[in-house]
Design goal:
This protein is mostly helical and 105 residues long. The chain has five helices and no strands. The longest helix has 16 residues.
Length: 105
């Protein structure tokens, strides 16, 4: 299910910018493939930045552990303004660092 969602997210993102769909790379992990499919620019040697993949992996774990509460609301609100995916993720991440979040991190 997670793998399918990654493909759908990447396809929607690329379509929004009138880019062709990029098939997943079987040599990459799930989150690495998300970045790959969203940002692939045609370069056969392209590989997502390790820092971005590490950050998104951490974000994915935080979301799974927190049942998508405040970060889900934030990402939906930011996305509803037609913001890009990176801004949406930044908004979602920002909700889990506040002192009222509960300090579970």
């Amino acid at each position: 299910c997670m793998g399918s969602m990654i493909g759908i997210i990447a396809a929607i993102y690329r379509r929004r910018f009138r880019k062709e769909f990029v098939h997943p790379n079987p040599n990459l992990g799930v989150i690495e493939n998300l970045v790959y499919m969203m940002d692939f620019n045609g370069d056969a040697n392209y590989k997502p930045a390790k820092e971005v993949v590490k950050a998104l992996n951490a974000w994915n774990i935080v979301l799974a552990e927190h049942e998508l509460n405040s970060s889900t609301a934030a990402i939906r609100h930011v996305a509803s303004t037609d913001a890009d995916i990176y801004s949406c993720m930044a908004g979602a991440l920002a909700t889990v660092i506040g002192r009222r979040h509960g300090g579970a991190n």
